[in-house]
Specification:
Length: 127
């Protein structure tokens, strides 16, 4: 059984930085595309960032492009989201997700393509 466990969320001030981590167990991490999504109260879950199996390809949502960076460590079976210049509108529950993939270079921005999800970690940015 594949499990994803996020950590690193918390309460920060606008302009601060935060690193989210997600550790995957029960599967072969290197075979998954990894992604981060977020959901604010009353809003749909939205795409934040994704990274290919080989780390060679990444993609970001428009609202975080240039501020956040996704990375992965296939040895540690972990994916990270480094969030900088945080804004109050970044406040949400952040979810880690994994998608089975054959290609080393592909990624996915579509939540319906992800097979496994973590339980989420809350990020709150105060103004």
């Amino acid at each position: 059984q594949v499990q994803l466990v996020e950590s690193g969320g918390g309460l920060v001030q606008a302009g601060d930085s935060l690193r989210l981590s997600c550790v995957v167990s029960g599967g072969t991490f290197s075979t998954y595309i990894m992604g981060w999504f977020r959901q604010a109260p009353g809003k749909e879950r939205e795409f934040v960032a994704t990274i290919s199996r080989s780390s060679g390809t990444t993609n970001y949502g428009d609202s975080v492009k240039g501020r956040h960076t996704i990375s992965r460590d296939n040895v540690k079976s972990a994916v990270y989201l480094d969030m900088n210049s945080l804004k109050p509108e970044d406040t949400a529950v952040y979810y880690c997700a994994a998608a089975r993939a054959y290609s080393l270079a592909s990624y996915s921005t579509r939540r319906e393509q992800y097979n496994y999800w973590g339980q989420g970690t809350q990020v709150t940015v105060s103004s």
